[in-house]
Design goal:
CATH superfamily: Glycoside hydrolase/deacetylase
Number of helices: 7
CATH architecture: Alpha-Beta Barrel
Distance between the termini: 27 Å
CATH class: Alpha Beta
Order of helices and strands: EHEEEHEHEHEEEEHEHEH
CATH topology: TIM Barrel
Strand content: 15-25%
Structural class: alpha/beta
Largest sheet: 6 strands, parallel
Oligomer: single chain
Shape: globular
Length: 237
């Protein structure tokens, strides 16, 4: 059974873009595509539409084959220790999705793929996503095709952006990746771009990637449809 490997990077903004770029170059050298989790607003002051350098880089990355995935709307409007879409009712989720979608469309980064900050979504968000044209939801424990209402189990493991970043955890990420890859599963790795300034984090992530590749995992990105069979049948984004 052939396993799969998906690598995603979140928290990309002006201060972390150079480190994200260097990390993506390392993935390029391994033939591994990347999924870039993008949010219009990060923290109290950052706005993607005011950051031409990062926006240009994201557009170029998409042109080169990276997946752009919506990753929330307004981090600053969220209660601490709770993901932005973790408890929202459908109407509030709908408003935030509309706002985020409009910003990304204006920037040439519109996407039909969604990952919630913290990887946790409310049922209201699940209801609102397809109403707003989203086709894929990647959660903590599974990836869901919102069009066919079908989910594939696969837990994401990561460093930063809600996951620990201590050395013991980095070692665990590598070990977990190897265990999943050995049994031909889907290895889903995630890293926060602000953590990529730490050489130990970069080494651990690349070790996890290399381990998955050595066990035959096929590099993929978050995409819709989820399987080649669906592409062949004419279903495509």
């Amino acid at each position: 059974m052939t396993g799969q490997l998906i690598v995603s990077v979140s928290g990309i903004e002006a201060r972390s873009c150079a480190d994200a770029e260097a990390f993506c170059a390392q993935l390029d050298a391994r033939g591994v595509g990347v999924s870039l989790l993008v949010a219009p607003r990060l923290g109290a002051t950052y706005r993607l539409d005011r950051d031409a350098g990062t926006t240009d880089w994201l557009r170029q990355r998409r042109a080169d084959g990276a997946a752009i995935v919506l990753h929330g709307f307004d981090e600053a409007a969220t209660k601490k220790r709770r993901g932005e879409f973790a408890t929202l009712p459908a109407h509030e989720a709908n408003l935030r999705l509309l706002g985020a979608d409009r910003v990304l469309e204006h920037l040439g980064l519109r996407t039909r793929l969604f990952v919630a900050p913290g990887w946790t979504v409310s049922q209201g968000t699940v209801t609102a996503l397809p109403r707003n044209g989203f086709r894929l939801l990647a959660g903590l424990h599974e990836v869901t095709d919102l069009v066919l209402d079908r989910a594939e189990r696969a837990r994401v493991v990561g460093i930063g952006a809600g996951f620990p970043k201590a050395p013991w955890w980095c070692r665990r990420v590598v070990a977990t990746s190897e265990r999943i890859a050995r049994r031909g599963g889907r290895v889903r790795l995630s890293v926060g771009a602000p953590q990529l300034s730490d050489r130990g984090v970069v080494v651990a992530m690349l070790d996890a990637v290399d381990t998955a590749l050595e066990h035959g995992c096929r590099p993929e990105r978050y995409s819709w449809p989820m399987s080649p069979a669906e592409v062949a049948s004419g279903l495509s984004a």
